[in-house]
Amino acid sequence: EVQLVESGGGLIQPGGSLRLSCAASGFIVSYNYMSWVRQAPGRGLEWVSVIYSGGSTFYADSVKGRFTISRDNSKNTLYLQMNTLRAEDTAVYYCARSNNWFDPWGQGTLVTVSS
Amino acid sequence: EIVMTQSPATLSVSPGERATLSCRASQSVSSYLAWYQQKPGQAPRLLIYGASARATGIPARFSGSGSGTEFTLTISSLQSEDFAVYYCQQYTDWPPYTFGQGTKLEIK
Predict the structure, then answer these.
(1) Pairing of strands A91-97, B85-90
(2) How far is Cα B44 from Cα B106, in angstroms, rounded to an integer?
């Protein structure tokens, strides 16, 4: 079964750092394009970052320079390192396979940035 | 960046009736358009890709149409489990991937 499971969310103070993980099963992360998408409370979906199968990475302007996407091929896991967090980064963060459309999606992990 | 605009923001429909949701792109996306369903507390689920192809396990009452800049998601006979928020997403010009703002389908 193809599945993604996120972890690492939590409550963090403004300016802090957090690393999210997304463990994949049923397919190989490094053979695919993989993305992070977030959803602020009561809001729509916002694409955050993608890592291509070849290793290239891209970011939304809102997180460029603060977030870093990466993967560990030996663990078949995707990561999102989030630094200098702001209140507006509060959201549920989803990982998803994103070769074109997004499928499958993980269940999401909540990140709350608040003092 | 291609901007996706969905209408209406909220649609009220009775069970058993047909629902028609719209998505417009700020420039042509050909048929590179996907639709997602999201229920409260759940992750989005892929419904339609390539503007009209149903994803695995999606019931035949869901259909997608359109090309270029105008797209439609039709649910032919609404079931109780279909009331949710629906998003469109273009994948012709990325990154960035862009989503519409969503249409909430509610029970009338």
Answers:
(1) unpaired
(2) 17
Each residue's pLDDT tens digit, B69-91? 999 999 999 999 999 999 999 99
Say how far apart CA B96 and CA B105 lie, in whole Å: 27
Position B94 pLDDT exceeds 90: no
Contact present, B88 and B35 (Cβ < 8 Å): yes
Which residues 2-61 of chain B have a CB within 8 Å of chain A? 32, 34, 36, 42-46, 49, 55
> B9 phi and psi, to 5 degrees?
-70, -40
pLDDT digits (tens, 9 = 90+) for A55-91: 999 999 999 999 999 999 999 999 999 999 999 999 9
Q: What angle do CA A101, A103, A107 make, to 5 degrees?
A: 135
Identify the residue among A2, A22, A38, A102 best suited for mutation to test binding to B, counting B beta carbons within 10 A and taking the highest.
A102
Nearest CA to A110 out of A88, A87, A85, A93 is that of A93
- Inter-chain contact B96–A58, Cβ cutoff 8 Å? yes
The answer to whether the CB atoms of B95 and A45 lie below 8 A apart is: no
From chain B residues 68-87, the ones with a CB under 8 A of any chain A CB are 87
